[in-house]
Amino acid sequence: MTDLNTLKYTAEHEWVALDGDVATVGITDYAAEKLGDVVFAELPAAGTTVSAGQVCGEIESTKSVGELYAPVDGEVVEANTALDDDPSAINADPFGDGWLVKLRVDPGAVAGLLDRVAYLALTGGAE
Amino acid sequence: MGGFAARHIGTDHDAQRRMLDAIGYESVDALVQAAVPASIHVRERATTDIPPAATEAEALAELRTLASQNRVARPMIGLGYYDTFTPSVIARNVLENPSWYTAYTPYQPEISQGRLEALINFQTMVTDLTGLATANASMLDESTAVVEGMLVARRGSKATSDVFVVDADALPQTKALLRVRAAAVGVRLVELDLAHGATLPDELFGVFVQYPGASGRVWDPSGIIDAAHVAGGLAVMAADLLALTLLRSPGSLGADVAVGTTQRFGVPLGFGGPHAGYMAVRQGLERQLPGRLVGVSQDAAGHPAYRLALQTREQHIRREKATSNICTAQVLLAVMAAMYAVYHGPDGLRAIATDVARKAEALAERLRSYGLSLATDAFFDTIRVSTPGPAARVIERARSKGYQLFWVDDATVGVSVDETTTADDLAAVAWAFGLPDADEHDVRDLPFAAAPPLAGVAQVLRREDEYLTHPVFRTHRSETAMMRYLKQLADRDYALDRGMIPLGSCTMKLNAATEMAAVSWPEFSRVHPFAPEADVRGYLAMIEQLETWLAELTGYDSVSLQPNAGSQGELAGLLAIRGYHDANGEADRRVCLIPSSAHGTNAASAVLAGLRVVVVACDDAGNVDLDDLRMKIAAHADELAALMITYPSTHGVYEHDVLEITQAVHDAGGQVYVDGANLNALLGFARFGDLGGDVSHLNLHKTFAIPHGGGGPGVGPVAAKAHLAAYLPSHPFSQRRDHAGGVVFEGGAVSAAPHGSAGILPISWAYMRMMGTSGLRDATGAAVLAANYIAVRLREHFPVLYTGEDGLVAHECILDLRPLREETGITVDDVAKRLVDYGFHAPTMSFPVAGTLMVEPTESEDLAELERFVEAMIAIKAEALRVAAGEWPSDDNPLVNAPHTAESLVVGEWEHPYSRQEAVYPVHTLVRTKYWPPVRRIDQAYGDRNLVCACPPIEAFA
Predict the structure, then answer these.
(1) What interface predicted TM-score (ipTM) does this complex get?
(2) Do A62 and B940 make contact, defined as CB atoms within 8 angstroms?
(3) What single string gives the DSSP state of each residue in B457-469?
(4) What's the pTM?
């Protein structure tokens, strides 16, 4: 079970887990709930370079589309291809099996993102 | 109010009196004058071109006179339009059946299973014949489908080039459209003679092939397709569906996208339309498909159920990033074409195609025997012949016997044969080509039964695989079986022949029988869009009248009826604005301001017109924020092309500041586009031209009574002030250069046919002719009255959002269901599905605001039906409150379990905390009037995660 307090967050409702220089990125439960049942995720291929704030993918539900923004500069190490067959993990386990991409990043850049308290303040939500 | 208007408007004087008392106004006029800001009330005209209201009999008589000015000839012009026999059982049970033509787009799939199944049949027919994986539920016409194919290629190709190669032998109208649409989005077209071994450029994103060519030539494009793939491009093929029953499929030749028309599958010519186009794509391109896509999912009981799939491709969600700006299809015509395939089956279609090929071969043989040469010996149904002497002579000889041939050039004539061509026809055409001294009695008939079909076509191009193997294409062969299948499907659907469909912004008003009558007359239906001017004077007169009347009603100077959907009219209007700026040397003007409350189509159309979208903020009521507008105008002053506004707004409010808004845009050198979707709230009381509008599109399938057909056809004319008129749509085959008022349009083509879906224009003509200006004004008043009445009756139960002057709404009201959700957990979805149990089609859900219902009753509903709706909504709220009070669990109550099928009542034990009676007869009168939904609530996510867009096997329904 991921400890949500150890993650970093963005204003676009994404979470980032850092392990060395590899950052795992996904969308938060707040975003997944707003989207509704996810039916498709379009993710960047391994080897793609992404820059902070740039749209690098899309997450589609039956009624809307959410854009996936790269939280920091980096290179895509791996995309979660298990989502091709079953994107519902994004709703069921957004912080775990619903992870979207792994990026090779500068760890310092991740440190500058929001912590959990700041993110919760954004969403006006409680635990 | 008497005459036809009293038949069209549902509320009579007494009913209106009671409604006015409830709202607190003396008269309908006083109500509308109060709702519509004084500053924009229409100025009285000294004269009008619109005749006073005719009776139904008078209108029909006038239509007969107009019809008599059209000549029903034998069209053999081809170019994508072929005469065909509409099976009588389909004409009577689909085209002329209100259960099919008064339905709306199947956004509530549980009550649309009939037409959804017919569309799945259509999609299966297309995928089978084209040999590609996924087809959508129809395109607007062949030429716009080719344009969309080009856009799919651009999105789907990894190449960075902006070059698209076009077959020199493409249909001329398609080439005309490609020129306009490519220029708008920065695509460079390169035209090559692909059939004769042209070399492709090194860089391209796609190539387009016509199969067979416009000249009739059948050739093997697989080499060109392979070369395109090597260059990183996609291959788009326009393919004749009847030819595909005999020729190798686009999929087997390597095409990525196939497009075309289904007109010759039993859909009348209609002087150009409406017809269902088609598009199919190979696996991997499904998410790039524009338009509607029907998929198979399952309902709450686990039964197969159809629904609209992958709706997130569309513009109401993606806005400027949509796959296209198309927001409709041609459902009624797609249903007819699919049923033609169901009725004839693969063997029947193959037989028709084989006969067609024999007819062409027999004619070719005879002409060769005269010593004439043909452009090619490899053809299906079309030949191009070098004429003995001037081509005009052949054309005239043919015409003297009632045959329309195609003048290619001074020495060439084209002839296309079709399902209806007889041996006598062939003989007459042969005579027309005959040597000058040929006696017209020489040739009695030209038998074709022994002629070898496709004699000159290479063996490698003959089709070998099977198609249309699904049982539905062989099960309904007798007319009895077909009639019953059509009835069963129609019975599953909720259309206007059952009850009110109060969809906000859709204007589901009466489509009167007299209005529909002329559509089936041969003088209007059996006419080729490129017929010579002398043969279509009735149509041209009707079109001129319509252009004049619509211009007068909207305060504009010129109207083009060419666009065959609102989205296309919108695009044409934006292209006119762009053309105007370019002509004034201001080609930098490319910014289009769009309010955040606008319908997503606006943004999608702006992108297709090559404009850059800048969003203008709106206040909480959906009104344009004047300060933000001024700021955005200032920020883009020199680049400002246009502002797009909807009036009344998408929130149903007559914005108070509209004159200031349009003035601000004009002061900065921009043009104002007014979206005409909500004209039913305004007609007769105010005019777009007086609001500061420079150009608008109108929706004849909303305001002017053309039926919605279950998701099309639509007609979206574009109307403009004089300074923009020159940039309105033109067409290479238009019979006349000038339009009403003697104005010449030069904007380029936006539809395959010069007058769009001309075949359904008699409907709007009859509506306006039978209402007259006073009737139209009365209709608007009654529509505004009905919406305000519903608002007043429901406001203590549901908050009514966005009221304007004096707390009034326009022709629709928005009920806020968010407080109900907060209080009870019952969602707007639950309410919409529970309305089905009460015998209603839900209002528009969650547009323009999530969690709301937008209710537009229209003027055609009577007070009893309005009251029935009010009572249903009140009862549903009471049910929701019982959930909140804990009387029913939140996961087992009549709302979350809605809609209830008959099956759900009888299968197994009834274990719900409410009775079966409460489930399906919540109101006692329903015992006699019940509509039974055929399926339970449909699982939307399942359908998008498991995309299936063709007929499920029969076993799935066991």
Answers:
(1) 0.75
(2) yes
(3) S-GGGB--S----
(4) 0.95
